[in-house]
Amino acid sequence: MQSKQNGDPKKDDKQVLNRQTNAAKLTKREKEVMILVCHERTTRQIAYELRLSPHTVETYRKSLIIKTGSVSIAGVIMYAFRNKYVAQALVFLLHDFMVEYAGALAV
To answer: Given 9, 51, 63, 85, which is the most exposed site by the fewest CB atoms within 10 A?
Structure first.
């Protein structure tokens, strides 16, 4: 079956393999940034939460685009869903939700 992108199924298989290989090479910090991107955090918000400069966060975002074989940050988000990083993102979201309501209940 030929690919819609370049017509060479062998080349497409290599691209998928490269994405999987690169995924194994994501650093802990890159994974954290990716999860926060999935939470719709801005560069400034991510920088604040991880105690980094916005420039450093942008560097991580660019690295994620390259390592996941994406062309935009939307591709990184799709990659995160496909590779089950979203489950980790949901745990963080649940944590944020609980902290927010615990604070509201304590008042």
So the answer is: 51
Per residue in 59-103, pLDDT (tens digit) is 999 999 999 999 999 999 999 988 888 776 666 667 777 777 766
CA distance 17 to 48: 34
Calpha distance 47→81 (Å, rounded): 22
Rounded-to-integer distance, Cα 35 and Cα 61, Å: 11
Q: Where are the domains of the chain?
A: 9-106
Provide the residue type at 95 as one letter. Answer: H
Q: Which residues contact 71 (CB under 8 A, 6 or more apart)?
A: 65
Query: What does CATH list as the number for 9-106?
Result: 1.10.10.10
Quick one: which of 90, 24, 27, 81 has its CA closest to 59? 27
Q: CA 20, CA 16: separation in Å to the nearest integer?
A: 6
Determine the Cα–Cα distance for residues 16 and 19; give it in Å rounded to an integer: 5
Tokens of 27: 């650093």
